[in-house]
Amino acid sequence: MSRERADMQDIRPLSIAIVNLMPTKIDTETQLLRLLGNTAMQVEITLLTMRSYESRNTARQHLDAFYRTFDQVRDEKFDGLVITGAPVEHLRFEEVEYWPELCEILDWSRTNVYSTMHVCWGAQAGLYRHYGIDKHELDAKMFGVFEHRVHQPLAPTVSGFDETFLAPHSRHTGTSIADIEAEPDLEVIATSEEAGLYLAASKDGRRIFVTGHPEYDRDTLKGEYDRDIAKGKDIAVPRGYYPGDDPAQPPRQRWRSHAYLLYANWLNYSVYQRTPFDRSSISNAASADEED
Predict the structure, then answer these.
(1) Is there a single domain that holds both residue 82 and residue 227?
(2) N or C: lower Cβ tally within 10 Å for the chain?
(3) Looking at the structure, do residues 131 and 263 belong to the same domain, yes or no?
């Protein structure tokens, strides 16, 4: 930030909403709060759940105590929004029970949120709704920790990243890199030879798309693997996760630093430095960005 701009800074807490679509909501909210809280900025969080879908894995008491619905916040403005993944990849978007409500949220984000971070299935949903880019089925589940390469080292989202870095994936569908490259408003920021697209963003930085799960804890992939084995599913050992790909060994977490950096960069460059001090003018700022 330039001295001129720094001298003009009025500082206030950032208002961040999280649309938590994961079945393990408490684990996911803890993972995301850990990443979002690892900066010098004050962050105020609003957790959102779907009114059109009843969660089967999180106690109603927890949802009532800590979550709001979109209807309760639709008239509010937020500096940032995170939309998580969801275990609904095998369905077409239109077949997802809460798809109409999620479309409302995605459309609302254009005028009521300054910058949105879309994660895993949330990234696929955002690309489909905003740009008409569909997902495609994979031959086998993309499952493990993969090496990625930065293609746009000057992109603010990857400021401070190494040329290559690790990140977890856990998904049955993918997004074509060629489809992203064909969209004038988007740029490919990081990919993996094995896992494909990892990070893309709109050129104004207001929409970030992450196809993996940088927020995952050390044991999250292990929990998914153990669950599927217990159910008798034909699931491969997550690649690059256990030492020697041996599930008898304790897994290693080798992606934490870049996960923290990704979220810190988003909060700093896409949210804090660009969102209006007066949140009520976010829609005007968004319109100005789109015209530029």
Answers:
(1) no
(2) C
(3) yes
